[in-house]
Design brief:
Elements: H1 4-29, E1 37-43, H2 52-59, H3 62-65, E2 68-73, H4 78-86, E3 92-96, H5 97-105, E4 110-115, E5 122-126, E6 142-145, H6 150-161, E7 170-173, H7 176-184, E8 191-194, H8 198-206, E9 211-214, E10 225-230, H9 231-236, H10 238-257, H11 259-267, H12 276-288, H13 303-316
Parallel strand pairs: 1-2, 1-3, 6-7
Antiparallel strand pairs: 3-10, 4-10, 5-8, 5-9
Amino acid sequence: MIHRWTRTARMIGPLLVLVLAVSGLAGCSAPKASQHTKVTVRFTWKNKGEYAPLYLALDKGYYAAEGLDVTFAEGSGAQTALKLLANGQDQVVYGPAVAGAQAVSSGLPVKVIALYTPRVPMGVISFPDVKLQTPKDLEGKKIATSVGETFTDLLPSFCKLNNVDLNKITRVQMDNSARTAQFLNHKIDVMSVYLNNELPELEKTAGVKFNVLNIADWGMNLPGAALISSNDYIKNNPKVLEGLLRATAKGFADAQKNPEEAATAMLKYWQTTVDKGIITQQVKATVDALGNYPGQPLGYQDQDLWTKALNLMVDTGAIKEKKDISDYYTNSLLK
């Protein structure tokens, strides 16, 4: 005689095995953070509001949705960051495309994979009582320079372009962290800044509107913020980079709509004394400078822009020679 519970067990047993098997399959297919591809994006400098759109993409899960586990790392100058990139220590660098072009011309195997600001938002500033209306006014002034600081590298080229006697400028080399204090204490006359980052913060601190020379207004029209990767990583991981660019573009698009949201997202990851209002101003200045090519995705790079920029860099001595233009940038990853 077969008991009812025995018959029931015989019926349930195969069903239970089937349920457990299906559950196991479902568990295997579910995405896990450990399965995400790790990508380090190194900034060429310390955290600043310019980077907030990337933090917004991270905070909203756009990178994770592309199967990426993205980590942001601060840098200590474009030259150092790009060398680390070329050596395979990092996968991507976010910084000025002009620095990427100089790296390529010097032989580093790297390439710009997306360009966000076609004109580098950089300028030279002075207090209102220090005359600074044209590049010629730099003569007779003291300017702070720092190893790895972009304008320090571009100063000779900027002077050549504008017929300024470099020998008449007193260059005072110091650590970048000391430049601001020296400038605010009137120990130096002029200082270079990123107009979308340092300028809003410095003007609030000093309580004045500075004299500003925008280098792009004086012929130094060079490509600005970009994502750069190594040639090997581009070749071996195109899908990873395509996903990174899609997610980053979403972060920029959201930051355009709501700069304050981007500032708030960044402050979740960045312990700083910088006021949220200043960071919001920095975000707004950054997204206002984004390139706009109808019918093209954000990050698209215009060949004519690159050609003119490289010719300018050769003419002013920023690079010794121009390689094939395809060595400097690619649009192939913008999907």
